[in-house]
Design goal:
GO terms for molecular function: oxidoreductase activity. Pfam families: p450. The chain has 305 residues and is mainly α. It has two domains: 221 residues, no CATH class; 69 residues, no CATH class. It has 14 helices and four strands. A two-stranded antiparallel sheet has the order 1-2. A two-stranded antiparallel sheet has the order 3-4. α2 packs antiparallel against α14, α10 runs antiparallel to α11 and α12 packs across α13. The longest helix has 30 residues. The radius of gyration is 21 Å and the shape is globular.
């Protein structure tokens, strides 16, 4: 039993559980902001050469990407260079995808070809070296985890099983909107504040079989509220994934230390892993007591053991 609970021995459990939450809340956003494909002229291809955005020697297009989330710049370039083009960030060549069609082709149709893409330092740490389904290489691990995701979350049987949870989410969201309309008929509503916590609750129900109001995390010496749990599992890793380590742009400078950056990202990873471990322990108590909720996590635990 303790072996099942050991997070280090079962990265599959952590990867799937966290992937379920991340997919429900982040979807393609995380991929759109940070995902890139290693582009090599050495590889033979029948595809036409990609347009390149002009930049400076050594730096490439770095000075043109001053925003934390440079999607506006990418969109502007797409008007000139089309939905797919290449840029230079220091020593790296990056392929930018700017339409749903090409993103779907890369992530679905051609995933096996682009799965060995290079990740940033932050993403390498936060995904435990690609042990998250959306970031993993196309191998047996990826296929196994994806199969569990499809079977327990995205497949037709799982969709029917979780329909009640979705109906409750829709009903509650509509009630909130109507209540706001009555109190402030001319006011602007921040839809994210209403929907975000409800989608998180839906993700927890699909992954664990129930919503979580709070969880005791021994390693952190505290009890995380639902809002704090959302921050630890979702918000912090998403923000960390777009943090920039300048050494990513100049691999030949990897020997230069950047301790503050690495410690920050490692702390995010530690908090997320300990929170997930606490959720798994709580779930194992429910299993031991004879309660068997409809849960993706239980399926993965059984498969792993």
């Amino acid at each position: 039993m303790e072996a099942i609970l050991d997070i280090q021995e079962f990265p599959l459990i952590i990867a799937v559980a966290f992937s379920g939450l991340a997919i429900a809340l982040a979807g393609l956003s995380l991929w759109y902001l940070r995902e890139y494909v290693s582009y090599s002229k050495k590889r033979a291809s029948n595809l036409p050469p990609l347009p390149e955005v002009p930049g400076l020697p050594i730096l490439g297009n770095l000075l043109q990407l001053k925003e934390k989330k440079p999607h506006m710049t990418f969109t502007k370039w797409a008007q000139t260079y089309g939905p797919i083009y290449s840029i230079k960030t220091g020593a790296n060549t990056i392929i930018v995808l700017n339409s749903v069609e090409v993103a779907k082709e890369a992530m679905v149709t051609r995933f096996s070809s682009i799965s060995t893409r290079k990740l940033s330092k932050a993403l390498t740490i936060l995904t435990s070296d690609k042990t998250m389904v959306a970031m993993s290489d196309y191998n047996e691990f990826h296929k196994t985890v994806k199969r569990h995701m499809l079977t327990n979350v995205l497949g037709p049987t799982a969709q029917r099983r979780h329909r009640l949870h979705r109906d409750i989410l829709i009903e509650y969201t509509m009630d909130q909107l109507y209540a706001f309309l009555k109190s402030s008929p001319l006011g602007a509503v921040t839809l994210r504040k209403i929907i975000e916590p409800e989608i998180f609750g839906l993700a927890l129900k699909q992954a664990l079989g129930k919503d979580v109001k709070s969880i005791q995390v021994e390693e952190l010496g505290t009890t995380l509220s639902r809002e704090e749990l959302f921050k630890v599992l979702i918000t912090d890793p998403m923000e960390g994934s777009i943090d920039v380590d300048w050494r990513d742009f100049f691999p030949y400078m990897q020997w230069v230390p950047n301790k503050s950056f690495e410690e920050k990202i490692q702390q995010m990873k530690f908090r997320r892993q300990t929170a997930m471990q606490a959720l798994i322990k709580e779930q194992m108590k429910r299993i031991s007591s004879g309660e068997v909720p409809l849960s993706m996590l239980i399926e993965v635990l059984v498969h792993s053991s």
